Amino acid sequence: MQRGNHPIARDAMAYVLAGGRGSRLAELTDKRAKPAVHFGGKARIIDFALSNALNSGIRRIGVATQYKAHSLIRHLQRGWNFFRTERNESFDILPASQRVSESQWYEGTADAVFQNIDIIESYAPEYMVILAGDHVYKMDYELMLQQHVDSGADVTVGCLEVPREEASGFGVMHVDDADNITAFLEKPADPPAIPGNPAMALASMGIYVFRTKYLIETLRRDAADPASNRDFGGDIIPHIVRHGKAVAHRFSRSCVRAESEAVPYWRDVGTIDAYWQANIDLTDVVPSLDLYDRSWPLWTYSEVTPPAKFVHNEDGRRGAATSSLIAGGCIVSGSSLHRSLLFSGVRTHSFSSVTESIIMPGCEVGRGARLHKCVVDSGIAIPPGLIVGEHPEDDALRFRRTKSGICLITQPMIDRLEA
For this protein, what reaction is catalysed (predicted)? Predict the structure, then answer.
């Protein structure tokens, strides 16, 4: 299929909700919002939603930020500054700025759009695509936009087909045979099945398509309701289901897959375990998510770095990496890496080993250190000789260790070791 230059997408604006902390990622989001967390050896989580919009042909994008937004805003300014107004393109970063009242920040996902209605109206898009900025997937929003137009829906909701026993953690759509949504249930104990497929349910992806005029009217009505929590999933969508026409769009219809990708890929990397697993999966010979698909590129900030370098070639002191992703600016000096990801500017010193671990930018792994199943936050110097991932009891006392044995290492944890 020929992608890009889609007429409906060119009449749309993508609005990315990127203000959440993502508290289930624990200390990893102490200094950044979840959408700003590093992913895949080079990118940030938000780059997936933004790249999907760009690759789908959408040329007007807004990003609403709130929680500890500095690193996210810096990334957006560096990596997404190529939009040109003379081509009818725009890219707006929209921090919570008390534009409605002097005491009001974004009170919910719907309020994060409502407070910027004037900016949206100034661009006059025909359609609005509301996106979450914290999921990992590849999707052509043009196909969802086309369904929205063809169906005459007031809102089209992006949905995942998930096993019913897993759906209780999502907002779940009850649909008829034509995928019209008849009920929206928030984290139901007994999720309704898809018609004709009793083992599966339709879970909301947090992706919504509206005609802009209808969305603005709906947001203004919701803002005037003192009982509302100003939330799309909790207020806006249920109201439309009851009083309008809401239609489900199945992710399987618009997911983008390279030839090597066997099944539709979508991940909520909202826990340390899920985040670790999604990154480590990229080291597989044939990964479930293909970052090398040039027909649907992952756009991000490309640092100017020297090539990765591997030095020393002696028994026991050989710079080597297997089944790993190594970013530019890394120096692997007499150390071994296996099934790991090194972001830019990481240095691993002689006799150290890193296995099944994620090392974020600017870290240094000291001489003789051993890291196994670790997530190391950015800019950390791992002390020489430190061993993590081999002694569960010791790890649990020093670091955040999950039930599955993944250890998160942050600077305050290292500081306590050295105190």
Answer: alpha-D-glucose 1-phosphate + ATP + H(+) = ADP-alpha-D-glucose + diphosphate
**Segment 126-137 mean pLDDT:** 96
- CATH class of segment(s) 8-283: alpha beta
Alpha-carbon Rg for the chain, nearest whole angstrom, is: 23
Is 390 one of the annotated binding-site residues? no
Q: Residue 186: its pLDDT value, please?
A: 86
Q: Which alpha helices (H) appear in 176-310, and where do they start and end?
A: 212-223, 237-243, 272-281
Question: How much is the mean pLDDT over the chain?
Answer: 94
C-alpha 47/C-alpha 80 separation (Å) is: 9
Phi-psi region of 325 (alpha: psi -120 to 50; beta: other; left: phi over 0): beta
Q: Say whether 186 counts as a known binding-site residue.
A: yes
Q: Is 344 helix (H, G, I), strand (E, B) or coil?
A: coil
Note the pTM of the prediction, 2 decimals: 0.94
Under 8 Å CB-to-CB from 368, ≥6 apart: which residues? Answer: 349, 350, 351, 352, 384, 385
Type and span of the H or E element at 109: helix 109-114
Q: What fold is seen in the domain 309-418?
A: UDP N-Acetylglucosamine Acyltransferase; domain 1 (2.160.10)
Rounded to 10°, the helix 46-56/70-79 angle is 30
State residue 98's pLDDT score: 57
Per-residue pLDDT band for 205 (boundaries 50, 70, 90) equals very high
Is 204 annotated in a binding site? The answer is yes
Is 106 known as a binding-site position? yes
The two tokens of residue 411 are 């600077």
